[in-house]
Write a structure and sequence with these properties.
The complex is a heterotrimer of chains A (297), B (301) and C (343). With 301 residues, chain B is α/β, with parallel strands linked by helices. Chain B is built from 11 helices and 10 strands. In chain B, the strands form 2 sheets. In chain B, strands 6-7-8-3-9-10 form a 6-stranded mixed sheet, sandwiched between helices. In chain B, strands 2-1-4-5 form a 4-stranded antiparallel sheet, covered by helices on one side. Classes of the chains: A mainly alpha (297), B alpha/beta (301), C mainly alpha (343). Chains in contact: A-B, A-C, B-C.
Chain lengths: 297, 301, 343
């Protein structure tokens, strides 16, 4: 037997009460903060549902806003033009941003790689990521509204949104493309396949699920943006499919309703907000499901 | 080894009780109560203060990862102040086994252990025992040198100390640990430089110093030299030879020559079980089990 | 396969006909031009923005614009200091409140929580990013602000001796609420990056700390947090950049008082909000001043984001030998940064 007994030794070496307290306290605080982080989400969802569901009705989705925000007794309408407008504007924005974004990503990964020029491009894409959304609206305004002397239009809003989506699409696509194993490319090239074939037949299909995820997330983001649309697509009440004219959109509709003194208008804002959030969550959900099918991530 | 004549602040010290632990002279009682004064002599001579390690006994140790049993009932003694090597082919469970000794095994999700691991006379798995205390008393050196990358050399060694020690003692304890690891001369002038800036061998000795700083009774080494060059390996083997006077050492190695060089006793494990254990000489020259013989003569593994 | 042998000579060379090489060259040059166009576009926008902002700078001087404390468009004064200050106060508030909570959530999900809770918790925090900015504004002004008003007034009354915080009447749009909502908005991004960085801490270091007899929290303190310092700072800066540029939620929640902010629980203004509110009807120099505000905003976010990227990159390279997955681990963090954003 050793003296003192090893149990005494171990007893002495055990964690002091002070240390144990500190450990418990730290872990408790961390847990508390985590719960704190989740509370807003719960509250937002709860409030959205509580105030928004009440506004939902078939009329809500099938009638245009009437533009009346003052008179209590007249109808205020629904949000049809807003929903359709968002879909159209975002669809056009995606049609612009996705091919360009993926194209640039392909260039970065397959051709530019580590060159100085590629680094410059990456730097500028980084710059683009940080630009506040309202500045994109300003950009497009300067070039397309002031510049041409013409007025607001749906497609101009799309362009502003596509600028917003571009860096997200480029970055996420770039990351995914880089995850495609070099060996895959090399074995195809070694078989004598030309580079463009390798890219389109091998690299892109492998990267597809991951890229779709990134794209969907970019779309979800664009759908929720208000500021870029304020001075580009502006707003209107009627449903229109003419992207060359003023066009309504969900975020802008909500924004203009928020400041109204009429309660029913504010309620409509909640209903529209719920609609928008559901739309975005759907996109996120699909993005997540798609990413599960990716063999890369 | 200069005997320490100062009596420790701890009242009931039984010098005779220490006799069987193989060190000369009387010592003070416990790791954590070592008087600093006593170390002046050892600092001057560069030798380590007299201290003894404790023995470890494995009784029916079984280790699981989920349902898979990696260590299948091992009874093994590690004598105090001796170096015991554990050899065996990859996957035989030797790393898992020693990680059970300082209860690191249970850190892996889904992993658990059964049986008893006795540190001298206490089962470290006893519910009354604090796992932190176990790890304090049983230190570990890992396969890949892993000094904390954001810390200086000094801070690395002091890391364990800072958890409990008072501010004033750090300087001396760090120096003592670095001397104990044979690193003091090489780094004494650059203690504030990052630990990750040292060579591989130095980093590993830094990790040894880090473990030594908290005065453990046992040091577990999991293939400590496998990532190092031969010269660094040699230095560490010399170090082990010195260190065993202070602590009990258990070293897992896949290098049989190393086991032959440093270990007093060697244990051969195969497939989660202890095949044979005995004085190193015997294991390598006249093993009793045919499997041992096949392994040490290189027929497999 | 496009191959043709070249006749003559001892060897047969496999050479592709020029026609066959065309798609490759088209692709390569086409994409290169595309990339160059993006660059040109950004530069062009910047130049045009500066152009539009010029009259305002001419009117008040660049420094005058940024530092004059007098935003009174109808009187022809365009000193943007109140706007800048409002922007900075709300963003700083967002950082102070948001970063600790985000980092704590990241620590919890990577180090402390039971394994099966990890993904659900992560998803929940990231869901905050799916809420569009305008909905945050809506929720903030109609739910949060009224609910907290009582508490805010209590604080203002109790601390009436403290300048800026105490005294006065709590208004519904106010700086504090704006900062609070901004904090919630940057939670996902700071948390995502922190989580990314924390999950790359090598198990080695954590085991070394535990092996020394550290408690769980001590292990986090010694082995995890120092390792992640750069990354977390980078994430915080990205959150800051986001908060600075945030428009709609801020516009709704900050009010429209162009005075220099003097009360935490009072109204103020911000660069983005002033553009959103006044652009529609602004003309002439006023409009140019708004462009100038946009320019200042742009430059601010540029600086902050640049710093942020610097830190995040440093984090994925700094400690330890460079690893093969280096790019994707840095890329992982940055991808998390780019996709976990809202309006």
């Amino acid at each position: 037997m050793s003296a003192p007994a090893s149990s005494e030794l171990l007893g002495r070496l055990a964690v002091s009460p002070a240390r144990r307290r500190r450990d418990r306290f730290a872990r408790g605080t961390i847990l508390g903060a985590t719960i704190l982080a989740l509370i807003p989400l719960v509250l937002i969802v709860y409030y959205l549902l509580k105030k928004g569901l009440g506004s939902w009705s078939s009329d809500f989705f099938t009638t245009d806003p009437t533009g009346n925000t003052f008179f209590k007794n007249s109808s205020i309408g629904g949000i049809k033009s807003a929903i359709l407008g968002t879909i159209e504007i975002v669809a056009l924005a995606s049609a612009i941003a996705i091919p360009i974004g993926i194209g640039v990503a392909i260039w970065l990964v397959e051709y530019g790689r580590d060159s100085r020029f590629a680094h410059t491009v990456r730097f500028f894409v980084d710059v683009l990521t940080g630009v506040p959304s309202i500045v994109f609206g300003l950009f497009v305004y300067i070039v397309l509204v002031v510049g041409t002397g013409s007025t607001y239009a749906g497609y101009k809003g799309s362009i502003a949104l596509s600028l917003l989506m571009l860096p997200v699409v480029i970055r996420s696509s770039e990351v995914i493309l880089m995850l495609v194993p070099a060996g895959l490319r090399e074995s195809a090239l070694a078989l004598g396949s030309p580079r463009w074939r390798v890219i389109f037949k091998i690299v892109l299909p492998t990267a597809l699920p991951g890229m779709v995820t990134g794209v969907l997330l970019a779309v979800a983001r664009a759908a929720g943006e208000t500021a870029p649309l304020l001075f580009t697509a502006a707003s209107t009440h009627k449903t229109t499919s003419d992207l060359g004219a003023f066009m309504n959109s969900l975020p802008v509709q909500i924004y203009s309703d928020v400041t109204s003194p009429t309660e029913s208008v504010v309620n409509r804002a909640w209903g529209a907000a719920l609609t928008l959030v559901v739309l975005i969550l759907l996109l996120n959900l699909i993005a997540r499901l798609v990413s599960r099918r990716s063999r890369l991530v | 080894m200069t005997p320490n004549r100062r009596s420790s602040p701890v009242a009931d010290v039984d010098p005779e009780g220490r006799a069987e632990l193989g060190t000369s002279g009387s010592e003070d009682a416990t790791a954590s109560r070592r008087p600093i004064v006593a170390d002046r002599q050892s600092q001057a001579s560069g030798a380590t203060a007299p201290k003894s390690g404790l023995s470890v006994k494995l009784e029916g140790l079984r280790a699981f990862y989920g349902k898979a049993e990696q260590v299948k009932g091992v009874d093994l003694d590690f004598n105090a102040n001796e170096v015991t090597a554990i050899i065996g082919p990859s996957g035989c469970g030797k790393s898992t086994m020693i990680r059970c000794i300082n209860r690191m095994h249970e850190e892996i999700p889904g992993a658990r252990a059964e049986g008893r691991v006795m540190l001298a006379d206490t089962d470290v798995y006893d519910s009354a025992v604090d796992v932190v205390a176990v790890r304090r008393a049983i230190g570990m050196v890992f396969q890949k040198p892993n000094p904390f990358p954001t810390m200086s050399i000094f801070d690395n060694v002091a890391a364990g100390l800072r958890l409990t020690a008072k501010r004033g003692e750090l300087q001396q304890k760090v120096e003592r640990a670095l001397r104990g690891a044979g690193l003091w001369d090489e780094v004494s002038d650059r203690l504030s430089e990052p630990g990750a800036g040292l060579s591989g061998g130095q980093q590993q000795r830094l990790c040894i110093a880090r473990s030594l700083a908290v005065d453990p009774e046992v040091i577990l080494m999991d293939e400590p030299c496998s990532a190092l060059d031969p010269i660094a390996t040699l230095k560490i083997e010399e170090l082990i030879e010195e260190l065993k006077q202070r602590v009990t050492i258990v070293i897992v190695t896949h290098n049989m020559q190393q086991a032959a060089r440093v270990a007093d006793r060697t244990a051969f494990m195969l497939d989660g079980q202890l095949v044979e254990v005995g004085p190193t000489q015997d294991i390598f020259t006249k093993p009793s089990d045919s499997r041992t013989e096949e392994y040490v003569t290189g027929k497999f593994g | 396969m496009e191959a043709a042998s070249v006749p003559g000579g001892d060897r047969t060379l496999l050479v592709r006909s020029p026609l066959a090489r065309l798609p490759d060259r088209l692709l390569k040059y086409g994409l290169t031009v595309l990339a160059a166009l993006i660059l040109a576009l950004i530069v062009y926008f910047f130049v045009r923005l500066v152009g539009q902002a010029r009259p305002a700078f001419a009117h008040a001087g660049v420094l005058g614009f940024a530092f004059d404390n007098n935003w009174n468009p109808s009187a022809g004064h365009f000193g943007a200091l109140p706007l800048v200050v409002g922007t900075l106060i709300t963003s700083t508030l967002a950082l102070i409140i948001g970063v600790p909570v985000a980092v704590a959530a990241a620590i919890y999900t990577t180090e402390l929580c039971p394994k099966r809770l990890r993904t659900p918790l992560t998803v929940l925090v990231e869901l905050l990013a799916a809420v569009p900015s305008v909905v945050y504004g809506l929720w903030g002004i109609f739910f949060l602000a009224p609910k907290l008003r009582g508490a805010e007034q209590w604080v203002a009354d109790r601390l009436s001796f403290v300048p800026f915080i105490g005294g006065g009447l709590v208004t519904i749009p106010n700086l504090f609420i704006t900062g609070l909502v901004l904090a919630i908005m940057i939670l996902p991004i700071v948390s995502a990056i922190s989580r990314e960085v924390m999950s790359t801490v090598p198990a080695d270091h954590k085991e070394a700390a535990l092996g020394l007899g550290a408690t769980r929290w001590e292990m986090i303190r010694i082995a995890v947090l120092p390792y992640c310092r750069s990354g977390i700072v980078g994430g915080a800066m990205l959150g800051l950049g986001r908060a600075i540029g945030e428009t709609i939620a801020v516009t709704i929640l900050i009010g429209d008082s162009p005075k220099l902010a003097d009360h935490l629980f009072g109204q103020s203004y911000s660069l983005a909000a002033v553009i959103a509110n006044e652009f529609g009807e602004a003309t002439g120099t006023h409009r140019s001043a708004l462009f100038a505000a946009g320019l200042v905003l742009f430059v601010l976010t540029l600086l902050v984001n640049g710093l942020a990227r610097f830190f995040v990159i440093r984090a994925s390279r700094a400690t330890g030998p460079p690893r093969a997955e280096n790019h994707s681990s840095g890329g992982g963090a940055m991808l998390a940064a780019d996709t976990v954003v809202g309006a």
